């Protein structure tokens, strides 16, 4: 490689690389230089290295500030219509989420509202949520459909996700979650609805390249493992990745099913058992933990974090931003909850929204760490210690954000 052919360098930085080859939980490199060429990190090297000799390009002096990879929110439902605040009041009075769902509320009440909204209306409702995530350092976000549940309405949601990518200049990973709930017109005929997903929705989404992956809600109040199996098999046949909302309220052994398909991630996992942990470890399926939903549902059973850690399963953290069970647009709050509620270390939480979240979206090869060859998506923070990013809420000590090599002030 020709020396000094960088476009811009960030000097005098403390790099929390999350590069697994660098020792320490954050892979911290003091006083280093991050060199960018085009949209890519070209090199990471010590300040006194010969690499800088004769360099004449742009320089940003970080003044000892901390640099992390861009944050990745790898599980959101941020496109929706309507509000579920009244249901939240019911839940606070003691009515369980499952009972509200069975009575036609929950996900289905958001489906009713979302179906009446145009693409533009959904875009305008979603944008402030996405902007809130971006303001905290999110440079890549996963967005699920799942509040349309007809072919036209699911495609409508995915098109909004696609437009958000252009409007907000973030990377978007779109996911088809048609198997979120059985729509009212298919009540009592869940298998017929699954046939619609398999025969029409998945082929249409694959043809229009509107999603990277297919998700399911494998749960007593949603879809059975057999139904999810049919959906995963169709997804694979159309070249789409798979993932699942599994073991959130009960143990349906959905994580084992996701692992059997080599799924990107199994998400929630409060009721995951040892066999599920072992299957995920073997398949390399990422555990996406969603402490926001755990908190809002006032759940008692925590995911088996110790067992996942011991088995070497990668653990990501996401906001699960949605109108019902996790109505907040803050990945930093989700990280904080992972520490306080699930026993994560702050470094593990940060790895969970960078390196591990990238793996959960099948993007581990080009996002999630500060390493030569990865996309130049990174954040400059005015903090002394990485844990400050996770500890102090309400104020975001983000100084600037670099996306695809281009810097903007936070
Ligand atoms: O991830 N578990 C299912 N889906 C969402 C909840 C969505 C909703 O209640 O609207 C979740 O928690
Ligand atoms: Fe979810």
Automatic annotation (TrEMBL):
Fe(3+) binds at residues 75, 77, 245, 320. GO terms for molecular function: imidazolonepropionase activity; iron ion binding; zinc ion binding. It is found in: Cytoplasm. InterPro entries: Amidohydro-rel (IPR006680), HutI (IPR005920), Metal-dep_hydrolase_composite (IPR011059), Metal_Hydrolase (IPR032466). Its cofactor is Zn(2+); Fe(3+). Binds 1 zinc or iron ion per subunit. Pathway: Amino-acid degradation; L-histidine degradation into L-glutamate; N-formimidoyl-L-glutamate from L-histidine: step 3/3. HAMAP family: HutI. This is Imidazolonepropionase. It comes from Frigoriglobus tundricola. The gene is hutI.
